[in-house]
Amino acid sequence: MPKVALTKKNLKLRSYVVITTVEAIVLISYCANLQFTLQIISGEVENILTASLNKYSTNRAWQLFWNQFQQHYYCCGSSKNTDWFQTAWVSPIILSSFSLLKKYTQKNRKFIIPAAPISCCLPNAICNTFTDCELPDPEKYYQNSCSSIIVNKINSIAFTTYLFYAVLVIQIISAVVKYEGYTDNDHNSK
């Protein structure tokens, strides 16, 4: 085989190996960055949701979010269904009983009752915010936490990194097969 053809073949092989190496580095970097970013987002989800529980009684957008999200995804609270039991989510203005107001108003003047919004209520359970607070029963409410629903969705995005790793393995195998094919051809031509 002429030396010029062998040099072109080696140049093609080296170019292919360099391109595959660059692709591998970019893919590994991308996947690592994606995993890191998704971990940060997952960590912030519960913080944001927990903080928004306190806005339920004063912010209509958060109230709509929580009611719709809990009903649609069959979840309750940020990290557990009893999150609502420690949150000032009910406006004391709607109370018809002064004794309830007095009983559940904290020293910090927040009105906290041991019950959850109706949107947390299981389909077959009977929930009434003001009677439930006298005998709290977390079993009446959805058991899944809402933050776990969102984190699971985020983790399903992270699953795509495995696809990228599979592509990387295919690229490396392809490079090795091509390299072996070139070196076998070089040995057979002598």
Question: What can you see in these coordinates?
Answer:
By secondary structure, the chain is mainly alpha-helical. It contains 6 helices and no strands. The chain has helices spanning 3-53, 60-73, 98-104, 129-132, 146-158, 160-189. Helix 1 runs antiparallel to helix 5 and helix 1 packs antiparallel against helix 6 (160-189). The termini are close together. 15% of the residues are buried.
Q: Count every beta strand, where a strand is a DSSP E run of 2 or more residues.
A: 0
Mean pLDDT, nearest integer? 80
Strand content: under 5%
User: What is the overall number of helices?
Assistant: 6
Q: What series of H and E elements makes up the topology?
A: HHHHHH
Low-confidence stretches: none
How can the largest sheet be summarized? Answer: none
Overall radius of gyration: 30 Å
Percent in helix = 55-70%
Look at the helices and sheets and give the structural class: mainly alpha
Shape: rod-shaped
Distance between termini?
8 Å
In short:
The chain is an all-alpha fold and 190 residues long.
Secondary structure: elements and pairs:
Blueprint: H1 3-53, H2 60-73, H3 98-104, H4 129-132, H5 146-158, H6 160-189
Helix pairs in contact: 1-5, 1-6
Structural descriptors:
190 residues, mainly alpha, 0% strand, rod-shaped
